[in-house]
Amino acid sequence: MVSYVKIPSHLKPSDPQGPDLLTQERNLASFDVKELTLVLYGIKDLERYHTILKIIENDPVFDKSNIYFMGRNELFEHAIKKEKRLVQLIRENKWKVEELQFAEWFLDMPGPFGAHRGMFIPTLIGQGTKEQKEKFLVPALNYQIIGCYAQTELGHGSNVKGLETTAIYIPETDEFEIHSPYLTASKWWVGGLGKTANHAIVMAQLISNGKNYGPHPFVVQIRDMKTHLPLPSITIGDIGPKFGFNSTDNGFILFEHVRIPRFNMLSKFSQIKKGTGEYINPPNQKLSYGTMVLVRAIIISGVRVTLARAATIAIRYSAVRRQFIDKDEPKKLEDGSIVETSILDYTMQQYRLFPVIAQSYACFFTAKMMVNLYTEYTKQSSSGDYSLLADLHASSSGLKSLTTTMAVDSIEDCRRACGGHGYSSFSGFVKFYQDYLPNTTWEGDNYILTHQTARYLLKTFRQVTSHKNPEIYASQSNKNPTISYILQYLNEPNQKCTAITPSDFNNHEIQLRAFKHRVAFLIANVVDQIDNQKKSWNSMLVEINRISRAHCQYLLVQNFITALHQPSEDESLRMLHNSPALKEVMTSICNLFVLHTMEKDIGDFLESEYLTTPQARLLRIQVYNLLKEIRPNAVSLVDAFLIPDSLLCSALGRYDGKVYETMIDWASKEPLNGMTLDFNPNNDTFIRKAKL
Amino acid sequence: MVSYVKIPSHLKPSDPQGPDLLTQERNLASFDVKELTLVLYGIKDLERYHTILKIIENDPVFDKSNIYFMGRNELFEHAIKKEKRLVQLIRENKWKVEELQFAEWFLDMPGPFGAHRGMFIPTLIGQGTKEQKEKFLVPALNYQIIGCYAQTELGHGSNVKGLETTAIYIPETDEFEIHSPYLTASKWWVGGLGKTANHAIVMAQLISNGKNYGPHPFVVQIRDMKTHLPLPSITIGDIGPKFGFNSTDNGFILFEHVRIPRFNMLSKFSQIKKGTGEYINPPNQKLSYGTMVLVRAIIISGVRVTLARAATIAIRYSAVRRQFIDKDEPKKLEDGSIVETSILDYTMQQYRLFPVIAQSYACFFTAKMMVNLYTEYTKQSSSGDYSLLADLHASSSGLKSLTTTMAVDSIEDCRRACGGHGYSSFSGFVKFYQDYLPNTTWEGDNYILTHQTARYLLKTFRQVTSHKNPEIYASQSNKNPTISYILQYLNEPNQKCTAITPSDFNNHEIQLRAFKHRVAFLIANVVDQIDNQKKSWNSMLVEINRISRAHCQYLLVQNFITALHQPSEDESLRMLHNSPALKEVMTSICNLFVLHTMEKDIGDFLESEYLTTPQARLLRIQVYNLLKEIRPNAVSLVDAFLIPDSLLCSALGRYDGKVYETMIDWASKEPLNGMTLDFNPNNDTFIRKAKL
């Protein structure tokens, strides 16, 4: 890229230099970074990582050096080029999902084909018949047709049942008529629809013989295959600029009595009989829940790398950035001269950043657990056993809500912890944050989702208590965490924390009891208000949210502790267990995650009367002790995440610590610097003209 | 603006229609909206408001209909045009500060002249001598020279003492030599520097006869007045894209031994003697603090309108948006047909949004108090009495930190409460949030600022306790809130809350005692750890932040309650006191602010043992009661803020409730919709070409 401003080449940043500072930090590590990286990725995926990264980084189409200077149109054009190149690479290298996941992660650009790969194809696979797959899936896999998934409407997001688009069966012609009766029925937010897709899976109210069978998926061709213009009676557009995701053409579409063959209703589960229009029920509703669980497990491992990325930038920059002199312990250079203190040495900075590292590792272990549970569930369900599903679905809903909100908030916390420069696009936080943000809304709004979790928790509590002999639940309690902590609470409703020194809070038993007792206490409280005090569901929504949060925080804690201590077949966990150094640092991280989470919601733990107020103060002191304990490993802990510079795309977070050289180099390339502004002070007129 | 997509004109949103819903809401109001608006603005300012708004809204240069579609360069060019037009209007209409404030608020665009008006001119006024004002201020006021304020450097933000740029006095030629010894010395983030300014006030280390006298302000011409190109030995550039503020050319500048006359050092307070280079001390350091207090008072009234703007959008859209049917109390239309429930009826939505309304009113009363205190202080200081300053400065620092962070978080909370559409630029939240964000960093980083507040609180506590007979402080305690709550705590360290029913928490005495006791308890705790347990300042930074927060929350509560009850000369307050209807609704709002604030930090109040855990539950119940109480007035409470549609620039928040019509109308104007994408499925090539 061309530089518009000549920076005096003799100028260097004042000492100490960033690279030296990061080297010093890395020398402090108590563990082998490569070893931890291997635990995080596993041998096979780490190989894939390097293979794919090399291909992506060496491909000029994927060059990001211009990315922060692009407006909406350029960004979209750029994204289209990337998508096209990606398709070629998929073919050339015969990439499977595993490889593609890495490629998409490194590309880091929500693209016009995202919904095609992420929604259109999976829906065809999941809900299409053999014939439908031949007709739609095969060309889709060859990118001969590009699809999108049209569910959300201008007037309806969360409440899918309320969708206004109709699909009426016409027996005479054996067709469906897709129609948008109102402006609010316009499909909205549909990724890839605005400019790119020529097919859509449209969720519409299935109506046959005057009866409404609720929303069902229909495949509709929306654009001409030659001219790529919208087909007759179809109105399509891009919905306009967004907080982020501007490389994607989220679109809207309106249908005016558009006819499609009956064949186009995805019919693996339910269908309409030819002529009679008789509706045939889905064999098993539960099946669809299963995939939801997996999607959410994937979102949570997404949270893990998201937090890792944010922490990497903030931690490295905090090690390089120095501000003020700490009078109590001033920092000295070799020559004895006093320099300003690295902001990573300030407790407040540690308090803001280290928990984000801990959250990332917590999500790593929980995502792992969810994938394992999902695999176990699919085994069982194939033999008709769905006992795991209810708990799994409830937990995954709440976890998606809790962790994606945590991720968004933590990115922003890390950004603000970078001071003024965090506000610059060059920080690597801006586009990153803006593109990640929708995770709190899609795949279930984070508030609405907690209702599902809470309903299950209340139901389970009622079952366990109402049952004559709760003992019979004991059998399930080892498999079902919810039943287990409810039983424990019922047997011992007045548990007290036994900690008498700050370090007692490192005791995992004390930690687990705190979270179990708190969530059971909150559930009991809500059940009482609804069942005995006859409070309405609506009046309890805030509490509903609290119990879902408490349940999922418990799961994160439980999974982290289990991962550290329970013998496991899992390759990563075995590597972890076999390395005392790793186990030690992960234990500190686990303790920080648990105690910082408790401290943030200390009110709950005090209210449940498990903790006394003096104990709350001890707990806070122990959090500060853990920050000190983790400080020497901070940089190495984020290095272990192995987020490549080409992905970080950050002047502040780069591995080599050349923060200031990069900031000014990138600034010199700002296109505005290529323009001259003619300035006439006498009549204050301005004429802007391009210099190039 | 041209529309690229033809939307079928016969389509309407499904019933009920937005305008009808808002009319229903407005009919529920228990008070006169116009009356409350008058309280907020005062008669004079409300007249100004309407005069200025008319001028701005009728001027084509200020048209915003295109704003969300602009890239960086367009946005900057647009901003320059606006600035130019604004200067003309200032001259034509002889606008004073009062008028200009409204104009800038309505324009809602951080412009290249912002620093000229906001920093350059005020600094010349505050720190220039008569001669310097003649030379620089007069042409600046005529926009013959355009200035910026160059303080922050690439390597130094918060720590001004650590600035690297030097100004060395050269007796031989009676000049200063401005120099950037390192890359990190580059001035950075300087508003209006990148492209616009031809002069800068440069903060540099004043060095004379080898002695460093610390940072001082120097006026430096940086661009040629004819060619507008940087002067020799000066490197200037725009620092590149940012999270927001992209209509402003924040810039960087490097000096290579640039000579300026001694005259250019702003010398109202301190100066260098000709030839000898002798340094003459500033008469009174304190003076500068005074203006800081005022600047922060202005920021806090800025917070008030910021919160008002966010709440207005979210509340109105929540009244229009309907989702799900509340089974316990389903909503019916006149014809008896059941419709989905307005999301404003869901407790969780009320819990997320109503506190933002309350925060806005809280900031209104506190900003008012600060301005009054500042006026009182300037009176006293003119007669040499600075007794008010310490408390005023400490409180204003902490309040700036607390309220701007509150504002940023609340904008985002309101945005997320708007579901998917909140993510669209058309929501009115995106640019709004992005441009407001820097408030948490500039005028003192929000974390660093709390140190100043805490230092004062600890010092005051030590003074009061160490003093033989604290009674003598009692005299000051009515003027000094800090001394007053410290004394109260020392006399009664074991105060307990007397509430036994939820509604008892509406008692202002109980509320005030809770906040006083909590802050004093936290301060006592920190003093003990530092003085007796010899903890280092650094190890206490998290607690430091807590006590500043606790102190400032108390001030917000105290000011709100005082404003409601204490007889006052203030025009607005008298109007409020004379209207029972207004007083009633403001009391509910005040109670919600106080109790919601308590609930959010409930841990503090439990730890201070003022509250018992059963009382914490009562308090939460009272918060829910207040939400119910406020619900009918919600829309009218935001209407009273009188934020014009032209400022909201929001499809969701417009006064008439035509949400969906506007969303689709604006989307049809997205320039991407004016492009066609030629799509060849056989070789998946893409060629984008303009249709127009």
Automatic annotation (TrEMBL), chains A, B:
Signal peptide region? none
**Domain named Acyl-CoA oxidase C-terminal: residues:** 508-673
In Swiss-Prot or TrEMBL terms, this protein is called Acyl-coenzyme A oxidase
- Domain of life per record: Eukaryota
Name the GO cellular-component terms: peroxisome
| Cell compartments where the protein resides | Peroxisome
Give start and end of each Acyl-CoA oxidase C-alpha1 domain: 289-458
Cofactor(s) the protein requires to work: FAD
Q: Name one GO molecular function term.
A: FAD binding
InterPro entries tied to this protein? ACOX_C_alpha1, Acyl-CoA_ox_N, Acyl-CoA_Oxase/DH_mid-dom_sf, Acyl-CoA_oxidase, Acyl-CoA_oxidase_C, AcylCo_DH-like_C, AcylCoA_DH/ox_N_sf, AcylCoA_DH/oxidase_NM_dom_sf
Principal place where this protein is found? Answer: other
Q: What is the lineage of its organism?
A: Eukaryota, Fungi, Fungi incertae sedis, Mucoromycota, Glomeromycotina
A biological process term (GO) from this entry: fatty acid beta-oxidation using acyl-CoA oxidase
